[in-house]
Structures are given as C-alpha cells and as structure tokens.
Design brief:
- This protein is mostly helical.
- The protein folds into 3 domains: 1-123, Rossmann fold (3-Layer(aba) Sandwich), CATH 3.40.50; 125-157 and 206-288, Serine Threonine Protein Phosphatase 5, Tetratricopeptide repeat (Alpha Horseshoe), CATH 1.25.40; 299-471, DNA Cyclobutane Dipyrimidine Photolyase, subunit A, domain 3, CATH 1.10.579.10.
- It has 22 helices and 5 strands.
- The protein has helices spanning 17-24, 43-61, 74-85, 98-113, 143-152, 173-176, 196-201, 206-220, 224-227, 240-244, 250-260, 266-288, 310-317, 324-336, 341-354, 359-369, 375-386, 401-408, 413-418, 427-430, 438-444, 459-471, and strands at 3-6, 29-35, 67-71, 89-93, 117-121.
- The chain binds flavin-adenine dinucleotide.
- Flavin-adenine dinucleotide (FAD) binds at residues 228, 236-240, 243-244, 275-276, 278-279, 282, 341, 344-345, 348, 366, 370, 372-374, 377-378, 381-382, 385.
C-alpha cells in the first residue's frame, strides 16, 4: 500500500522531514495537496500557492511522480483518500496556526483510530514553538530574552538532503477523477488579472529560493546591518514568501549563513539571524495567543477611540495619502505583493497614528495583498507597530513619515520608482512636495491635489490627535 505525503506549507524536496521519513518507509509515495477553503490564504498568497503547487509538481514529475491536488474540507478529503488508496501511513510537516493545529489533531485522531500510522515532523521553524520557554515554563513576552533562550538551545539540526530515490504509486481510478488539473485550481485572479506585477517580480519554487539565498549571502550579508533599512537598495534577502510556503527552511538558511560567517562581520550575521528570530518569536506568540490577529494584547487599547474613516482607509490602501514614502510603499505592495520592512513600519504607523484607524484594518489589508503573509508575523508586527502588543514600540512614539523618507530614501529613488508623478521633483522637495516653493513645483510640473495627491492629514495635527486619543486610555 502507498504512503501519503500531505504537502501544506512545505513545497520543497530537500530538508523535508516528512518526505524523507515517508521515502525511508519503503512504501511507494502518493504526494498530495488539499485546497481547503478553511485554510486558503489571501488573494496575493493564493497566487503564490498556485505557483508553489505547479513548481513542486514539475519537480516530482522529473523524478517520475506527480503532485495530486484535491479540493474540499481536509477532514473529509484526507480520510477519503486514505480509504480509496488503501494507504496505511500518512506523513506531514507540522503547521502551527490555530486552525491548522486543530484540523491536524482531529485528522490524526480519526486516522489512528482506523489503524493508520500518522507521522508529523518539524521543519517550518528553527525550534518548536513550545520549546523556547522561561525558567518557569511560560512563554517569553520580550524578544531579546526569547532569542537569547532560543540560541541557548544550540544550532537547529543540520538540513536533510533531498531523499536520494523516490518511488511513486499511481492514484487508483476511484480517486483520480476527484483530482484537479491546474486549470481547476482557481487560485489565480481571473477578471481582472491583477497579477502581472507579481509575475514580473517572483518565481515561486525551491530552486529560486536557494538562488536568492546564495546571492544574498555572497552580495548582501556583509552589509546587511547598515543597508537593510534603505528600501531602494533592495539588499534584504527577499526570502519571506519562500519561507512562508516552505520552499526553503529557516534551518537551511541558518546553516548556510553560519558557513558564510567568516566572510561577514559578526554584527551583520547576528542581525540577519535575529530577523529569523523575530519570525520564531511571532510564531511562539501566535502559539500562545490564538486571537493574535484580532485582539489587542494590551487590553487598555480596547477603549481606543479609533476613527471610522473609509475614505482615508481607501487612500491609504491605494497609495494616495499624499505622503510620498507611504504612497510608494502601498503601491509597491499592490504591484508586487511585497513591501520593504522599513516602509512596512512607516505605513503601519501612518495608518494607526496619523489616520487613527484600527490596526486590524491594516492587518486585514496586508493579509490579502502580501505574498509573504503569515498569520504570526503579520499580527505580531501590526501589534508591535500599533503599540498594542507585547514588547511593542510605545504608542507615543509617532514616526514622522517625512523624516523617515529623508533618512532612508535620501535621493528619493524608491519614491520615484513607485510614485512616478513625483519623479521630476528635485531630491530636496520629493519627500514633502507641498512644502516646496512655487517655482520648484512649477518647474517640475507638479501640483499637489492635481497631478499628485495632496496630504490627507497634517503631520503635526495628526500627531496631536493620536496622542490625545492615547492619553484618554486608562493604563
Ligand atoms: P530579511 O531582512 O532578509 O529577513 C530574513 C527573514 O527574516 C525574512 O524573510 C522573514 O522571514 C524574517 N523576518 C524579517 N523581519 C521580520 C519581522 N519583523 N517579523 C517576522 N519575521 C521577520 N513578514 C512576513 O514574513 N509575513 C508577514 O505577513 C509580515 N507582515 C508584516 C507586517 C508589518 C506591519 C511589518 C512592519 C512587518 C511585517 N513582516 C512580515 C516582517 C518583515 O517586514 C518581512 O519579513 C520582511 O520585510 C521580508 O523581507 P526579507 O525576506 O527581505 O527580510
């Protein structure tokens, strides 16, 4: 009888503990994916999922197999496939979101009762989320302490190679007719097709992930700490969507980085690995707080007088706030499904503080538009930036979008790329066009409010409004 390998967020052949274990069991493999509405991601990440499935199917085909794709509730579909194929064992890599954990636990119980072997493996994180704990066994609330403790656990296990030889079973006819062809996945946008920018920017898959990692380690790790904050330089790894879909594991990144450590300073290497640490911290928070994306971790914020302002929310979503760096970021997100980390912080702060709109609106927009959206990192970072989370930036620290722009995009090249209507302005005027002199504007042909959006709020007034709202909260 075949062994089923259920792929979920682990679209790779190397360092795939479930696949390796299944291959070592000696049974011929049936590799499958289930498109379950309860666990499908937002629109941009669905586009990525489509590419991830196709890329893994191509890899499996070149080894004589296939990736079989089904649709429906996993709790019904998986047990049915087990029955129809006569499989005696099922293998998967663990997921850690609340819905995924609950689903997997229920399926495991049901299959075990039916005498089926179910084996689940670690792989999406450096350390299982329940292993990094304070001395008294509680989860950490502060990143630095969390990360120190995680590092004390030592190196993650060395990555596994791709299993040397894979043998595959055929899908029995009873089951085959339920399988989907790529035309039926229905994960790509149809009308309108807004994915051109995503296609131009990304190629989902394991091979691309390792190419990117290689380029990052040779070209950018050595200057990571100093240059990661400058969006125009594009020197961060851009591995986030590849990690999200498991084309690459944090363990692979960890060990590859350690091998390169001699060529980069300790500061750069530690800074980069600490970013992987933030990802771990986020998952450990979600593991403890199921409702991380919907509930203020600091309950005082439940009384925050957030504004209901659909027009301002829309302006933010469409990159039409009039603040050039904010608009550049929101347009980069819309076109490519990704935004530079520094700019994510600026746009998040702008929504929550300048517009005084509930961070959950921003969390939802990012969930639908980011190719790297994951429920842990997104919710953690939104709560961090909104000041509502644990170990968060305090609410009263209001980022000034103009100063951030001058500091991190000094020559305006990121702004010029994403807000082309401002391109003719000189560097000195591009960060706040409405403050430029009439001559400068006329010369560049830029008229705020006509050729480009005028600022929808005044920085100083908005800041005061946010602080007044925050002061109204009881500690
Ligand atoms: P690098 O700088 O190369 O970092 C390497 C890896 O470390 C990243 O791929 C990512 O996996 C991890 N990482 C880096 N920074 C963070 C961070 N602050 N929190 C958690 N992990 C991090 N990241 C997501 O992966 N998914 C999200 O949904 C997400 N939402 C965010 C929302 C907001 C409001 C903010 C401010 C940040 C969010 N981030 C999210 C974190 C961060 O912006 C991205 O991980 C990063 O920009 C990805 O680019 P990179 O791969 O080039 O990062």
């Amino acid at each position: 009888p075949p062994a089923l390998v259920w792929f979920r967020e682990d679209f790779r052949l190397a360092d795939n503990a479930a696949l390796t274990d299944a291959a070592q069991s000696g049974a011929p493999l049936l590799c499958l994916v289930i498109l379950d509405d309860a666990s499908l991601p937002g629109a941009a990440a669905r586009w990525w999922l489509d590419g991830a499935i196709r890329a893994l199917d191509t890899q499996l085909q070149s080894r004589g197999g296939r990736l079989h794709v089904f649709r429906g509730p996993s709790r019904e579909v998986l047990p049915r496939i087990v029955r129809q194929t006569g499989a005696r064992s099922v293998f998967w890599n663990r997921r850690y979101d609340p819905n995924g954990r609950e689903t997997d636990a229920a399926i495991k119980t049901e299959l075990k009762e039916a005498g089926i072997t179910v084996r689940s493996h670690a792989g999406a994180l450096l350390h299982e989320p329940w292993t990094v704990r304070t001395r008294s066994g509680t989860p950490f609330q502060v990143f630095t302490a969390f990360w120190r403790s995680a590092r004390d656990l030592g190196d993650p296990r060395p990555p596994l190679p791709e299993p040397p030889a894979l043998t595959f079973a055929d899908l029995p006819p009873a089951c085959a007719h339920a399988g989907l062809t790529p035309d039926d996945y229905a994960l790509r946008p149809a009308k309108p097709d807004w994915a051109q920018g995503l296609r131009d920017e990304w190629e989902p898959g394991e091979e691309t992930a390792h190419d990117l990692l290689g380029t990052f380690l040779t070209e950018n790790l050595a200057t990571y700490a100093a240059s990661r904050d400058f969006p125009a330089r594009n020197t961060s790894s851009r591995l986030s969507p590849f990690l999200r879909f498991g084309h690459i594991t944090p363990g692979q990144i960890w060990h590859a980085t350690a091998e390169k450590a001699g060529t980069a300073s300790q500061t750069d290497t530690a800074k980069f690995l600490a970013e992987l640490g933030w990802r771990e911290f986020a998952w450990s928070l979600l593991f403890t707080h199921d409702d991380l994306a919907t509930r203020n971790l600091r309950p005082a914020f439940d009384a925050m007088p957030w504004r209901n302002d659909p027009k301002a929310l829309k302006a933010w979503q469409q990159g039409r706030t009039g603040y050039p760096l904010v608009d550049a970021g929101m347009r980069q997100l819309w076109h490519t499904g990704w935004m530079h980390n520094r700019v994510r912080m600026v746009v998040a702060s702008f929504l929550v503080k300048h517009l005084l709109i509930d961070w959950r609106e921003g969390e939802r927009w990012f969930a639908d538009t980011l190719v790297d959206h994951d429920p842990a990192s997104n919710a953690t970072n939104w709560q961090w930036n909104a000041g509502t989370g644990v170990d968060a930036a305090p609410f009263f620290r209001v980022m000034n979008p103009i100063l951030q722009s001058r500091k991190f995009d000094p020559d305006g090249s990121y702004i010029r790329r994403w807000v082309p209507e401002l391109a003719p302005l000189p560097d000195s005027a591009i960060h706040a066009p409405w403050e430029a002199g009439e001559d400068t504007l006329r010369h560049a042909g830029v008229i705020p409010g006509e050729t480009c959006p005028a600022p929808i709020v005044d920085h100083r007034e908005a800041r005061e409004r946010a602080l007044a709202a925050w002061r109204s909260l009881k500690p």
